[in-house]
Specification:
The chain has 448 residues and is an alpha/beta fold. The protein is built from 15 helices and 15 strands. The protein is 38% helix and 16% strand. It is globular and about 60 Å long. It starts with 7 loop residues before the first helix and ends with a helix. Pyridoxal-5'-phosphate binds next to helix 5.
Length: 448
């Protein structure tokens, strides 16, 4: 059919003319995607792409996982919607599952429609619970696109949107490849150690005015930065010392992405509030989570919960969450993420032998990245921080080349994130590495 949804050029035109796309200039005509299965998706010309991003790092079980699709269909047949205050089998089942898979004494979950709303609610609850106002957040962070979440966010989208919730104080990131305080060695860096930097900020800000520290356990969008061992423990101890809550945002890093249910499990650190979304149900239906400790949950028996949403605990979302978590348990998906992740980092290290532009390979599980440089000695970044347009030409050329070769990649500044579905096969992983190998020739041409 011409001039309707079945005509790809009509889809492109309507997209360009009437659809507003996230975080970009409008009017572009995208590739029209016809379908997907597992780690692959394809366009209306039948060209196939290997999804090395899991779309927005949410499609953890790949496209069209049959168990999740079946659960959504079954729930749609049974009951599409029931208000958040009513009892619902799938909502209770998902809340109980969350208690099982989250660490320590995290016990009770509020369900939202995504990561931003979960972070908003976490911050509001932290202020309500502590009676304090300030929130310490980091520069290299993305916490979502609603007013409060964007104010917590440090990446440049924060400026674009002029986000300005009062009370946000910024802290630097434990970026060991480029120690932020100028120390050559991360072991000497007060920021990479955690407590010394936080203590200094608290000295100026007054710890009694700080409700919470919010961190992405592993920084996702803003460069995939894995904290050094000891960092999170040190932040946790400092928070304990002053009665400050620790909120860990695991919207990207959680639900098996790093080979464990949550990234904080790698360091045995338990936050007071854990925020999730994305991988909980592979993004098939919008869903976010905010899980609180027993202490906060008990306190909430006497003090009203400061938040609510029409779609809190939506049955279709909860059904898909239950199915996805059970599928990950039945199919040993976390083991696969750990094994394929180790293989991926070995392969990336091998590529680094031949590609001088690879400055660093880093990551955990299938949450990996390569940081590209113009020179390994000076570590000059291949493109500047948050580069756009011409300044980002080398990165854009790589993305285009890879896409033409059938590999879907994305980048932030000079970092390529490599986050395929957690159930990717070894064969597909190696196909992606092969295309990446050729793609990196473009970066090597910029090497000095
Ligand atoms: C760490 C982190 N937090 C929060 C969000 C926001 O989630 P959502 O887009 O579902 O609101 C994102 C989205 O990419 C994220 O990566």
């Amino acid at each position: 059919m011409k001039n309707g949804p079945h005509d790809p050029s009509w889809v492109q035109d309507m997209h360009a003319q009437h659809y507003l796309q996230s975080w970009s200039k409008q009017g572009s005509k995208p590739r029209v995607i016809a379908g997907g299965k597992g780690s692959w998706f394809w366009d209306t010309d039948g060209k196939r792409y290997l999804d090395f991003q899991s779309q927005l790092v949410n499609l953890s079980l790949g496209h069209q996982h049959p168990k999740i699709v079946a659960a959504i269909k079954a729930q749609a047949d049974k009951l599409c919607y029931i208000g958040p205050g009513m009892g619902s089998d799938v909502r209770s089942e998902l809340a109980a599952l969350m208690k099982d898979i989250t660490p320590g004494d995290l016990t009770s979950t509020f369900f939202t429609t995504g990561g931003a709303a979960a972070n908003e609610t976490a911050v509001r609850l932290a202020r309500h619970y502590t009676g304090r106002h300030k929130i310490i957040a980091r520069y290299r962070s993305y916490h979502g696109a609603t007013g409060g979440a964007l104010s917590l966010t440090g990446d440049p989208r924060h400026h674009l949107a002029r986000a300005d919730m009062p009370g946000v104080v910024r802290m630097l990131d434990p970026y060991t490849y480029r120690p932020p305080s100028g120390h050559a060695n991360p072991d000497d860096c007060p920021v990479c150690q955690g407590a010394p930097h936080l203590e200094e900020i608290l000295m100026y800000e007054d710890p009694n005015s700080v409700a919470a520290v919010i961190l992405e356990t592993i920084v996702g969008t803003n460069g995939l930065i894995v904290p050094p061992d000891g960092y999170l423990q040190s932040i946790r101890e400092t928070c304990n010392k002053y009665g400050i809550l620790l909120i860990l945002d695991e919207v990207m890093a959680g639900f098996g992405r790093t080979g464990k249910w949550f990234a904080c499990d790698h360091w045995d650190v338990v936050p007071d509030i854990l925020v999730g979304a994305k991988g909980i149900n592979s993004g098939y239906v919008p869903l976010g989570t905010m899980t609180v400790s027993t202490t906060i949950a008990d306190w909430l028996k006497d003090y009203s919960f400061p938040g609510g949403l029409t779609y809190a605990g939506h049955p279709l979302a909860c059904a898909s969450g239950v199915a996805a978590i059970r599928a990950m348990q039945e199919e040993h998906t976390l083991d696969n993420a750990e094994q394929m992740g180790a293989l991926m980092r070995d392969e990336l290290a091998r590529l680094a032998d031949n590609h001088p532009s690879i400055g660093e390979v880093r990551g955990l599980g299938l949450f990996n990245a390569i940081e590209l440089v113009r020179n390994r000695e000076t570590r000059e970044a291949l493109v500047p921080f948050a580069a756009k347009n011409n300044a980002a030409a080398a990165m854009q050329a790589m993305m285009k080349y890879a896409m033409d070769e059938g590999l879907y990649l994305s980048f932030f500044s000079n970092v390529i994130r490599l986050t395929p579905p957690l159930n990717i096969s070894e064969e597909d992983l190696m196909t992606g590495i092969d295309i990446l190998d050729r793609t990196l020739d473009i970066a090597d041409r910029e090497y000095r």
